[in-house]
Amino acid sequence: MNPEEAHHTVTGGLKFFNKIWGSKALLNSLYNVEDPRLETKVFGLTFKNPVGLAAGFDKNAEFIEDMARLGFGFIEIGTVTPKPQPGNDKPRMFRLVDDAALINRMGFNNKGADVAAGKLKFLKEKNGVLIGGNIGKNKVTPNEEAVNDYIYCFNSLFDYVDYFVVNVSSPNTPGLRDLQEKEPLMKILNTLQELNTKKSNPKPILLKIAPDLTFTQLDDIVEIVMETKIAGVIATNTTIAREGLQSHRMLVQEPGGVSGKPLTRRSTEVIQYLADKSNRAFPIIGVGGIHSAADAIEKLNAGASLVQVYTGFIYEGPGLVADICKGILKERSK
């Protein structure tokens, strides 16, 4: 099945299943690992466990109640933009089965910040799961006006999310990664921080970065985080690199960002570098190529405080979250 169609089929099936009597208890018994030793306190929030669902899976906050029953400690919605946009032309997602990877060039397809806020406003049951809001700019918005898009999304979602993620690292919106340069990034983060400090209950703001940054650029990221005093970093987004891929040449050449196992090593390198360079001065959420408990533990040992899954969740199935939580408990009991 086409990967994008498969996504809609599975999420629609899960939503239907969750309406059946007894389904909640069944999913909780299969996939929820409840243990106070998994509690993780980061940037002023308490996560029931350190395993989250990365942005991109639930772009419009439509499946939080459903996914919350699969054991996640937190769920990140988005990427959300101010105005609805259809994203890039289809097909725009490809499975690299031989590499346990995906290529996507979705292009921030979403229904807009107001729709996401409306969904979040009427959530009935989150199962103790915290919610992150991943925000970006519309494709048609020029980079010099991008800050206004981030302001709009920040204000729209503020009352309904527990933390924010500024996404300037997707490779699928033309020119977006230019915003990772120091001057435009400082402008966006300082503006959001200024708005944030005026609130009675400021929310943590994180920055999501690309795995393709050089070590010099990562040095800049450390400086930016320290100067703007944002809460932390998510490392990393998808990669535009193609080295070492084993899948069919025609598939590998598809434009877009690669996620999954080919990203495992590089994302861990970025986490380790940021943690060492900053002397662990700020929290890092590790994401990229987590397909097992060992992968997650490796990222936590490298300096991550929390981890997120997406492609690994697609390939390994819903039991991955419980496996990671059990692996963490086993590691901590040594």
TrEMBL record:
Pfam family for this entry, one: DHO_dh
MF term (GO), any: dihydroorotate dehydrogenase (quinone) activity
Cofactor note (record): Binds 1 FMN per subunit.
Protein name listed in UniProt: Dihydroorotate dehydrogenase (quinone)
Chain ranges of the Dihydroorotate dehydrogenase catalytic domain: 38-329
Coiled coil: none
Catalysed reactions, as listed in the record: (S)-dihydroorotate + a quinone = orotate + a quinol
Family assignment from sequence similarity: Belongs to the dihydroorotate dehydrogenase family. Type 2 subfamily.
Assembly and oligomerization: Monomer.
Example of a GO cellular component annotation carried by this entry: cytoplasm
KW Flavoprotein (keyword) present: yes
Binding site for substrate: 59, 104-108, 167, 172, 237-238
Subcellular location: Cell membrane; Membrane
PANTHER family in alphabetical order: DIHYDROOROTATE DEHYDROGENASE (QUINONE), MITOCHONDRIAL, DIHYDROOROTATE DEHYDROGENASE (QUINONE), MITOCHONDRIAL-RELATED
Record InterPro entries: Aldolase_TIM, DHO_dehydrogenase, Dihydroorotate_DH_1_2, Dihydroorotate_DH_2, Dihydroorotate_DH_cat, Dihydroorotate_DH_CS
Sequence positions that bind FMN: 55-59, 79, 134, 167, 208, 236, 260, 289, 310-311
Biological process annotations from GO: 'de novo' pyrimidine nucleobase biosynthetic process; 'de novo' UMP biosynthetic process
Keywords, alphabetical: Cell membrane, Flavoprotein, FMN, Membrane, Oxidoreductase, Pyrimidine biosynthesis
Names of the cofactor(s): FMN
Membrane-protein topology: Peripheral membrane protein
Source organism (scientific name): Sphingobacterium lactis
Record EC number: 1.3.5.2
Function: Catalyzes the conversion of dihydroorotate to orotate with quinone as electron acceptor.
Entry annotation: catalytic residues: 170
